[in-house]
Design goal:
2 domains, mainly alpha
Length: 313
Amino acid sequence: MSGDPRAVRQAAFGDRPDLPVRVRPGTAPVERWLVAVALGGQGRYAAAAAELGGLLADPSVPTAVAAHAAITRAAHRRQQGGHAAARPDDALGLRLALAAGGRGDPTVDGTDARAARIDALVGLAADAVGLGAAAVAVRLLDRADREAEDHPSWRPAVRTGWVRAEVALLRGRADEAVPPAERALAGARVAGSARHVLKSRLVLVVARGAAGVLAPADAVEELDAIATGCARLSQLPLEWPCALAAADLLDALAARERDERPGANDVTARTGQRCPDGRANGATRRRHAAALTMSVIENRSDPVGKRLSGVSL
């Protein structure tokens, strides 16, 4: 396992999010945070929570890094379905970031106090989306955009793009979800962050599918391709939503076919769910794959994460 700062950066925000990472004695606080970011991306939530909790409990940790730790813990709670549980940590992160003021030069990866303020606002907006408060989310995103003006980091534009797409979908305006999702994907690709590219592709295919500009069969193909990329790079928290979304689309397609072709009876439907070798295929196979992935994630979660996963399932 690597504790080298360059490898840790590759795992957190670069092209190798699958790299095994660890905190070694003497590791600087900001690298400890990056390790936790990478661990969360791999679905190793218990290990990430332990590191983030340590950063928050250590008075010698710079306030800006502690702010990022709180915000990252909130993001991990959201990924496990806990939007309400994430909100207190996002709020803590914002308070810490404001207390840190403008200390520290802005960085491309957004490890400074100002970037923490932006991240906290975007996190709070994502929490609001999960709780159905679209108007609140928009106000927070607008404030985040103002904070992000002239900041060199690529992350704010990518993350606000995700959440703006989610707000549009929440409001039933799928066509408005496509442009911010496209911008997020473009920014992630320029930055070279494999994890952010995968997440942006997922958001975009959902937006395009909902807007009707991507045929369901093409959406399933793209979701399968994203899931394959997630599996290759050990990004389990992104892999299972791809499988479930593809399964939902396949179920919808099957239902539509049955409605349009009354003669396509249950025998046809059952045949469509089987591979030539008799294994489960289609929606059934994808739901099974998603359940297995979620089980692995739950086993790697801390007690709070396990509880949230149980509720979200």
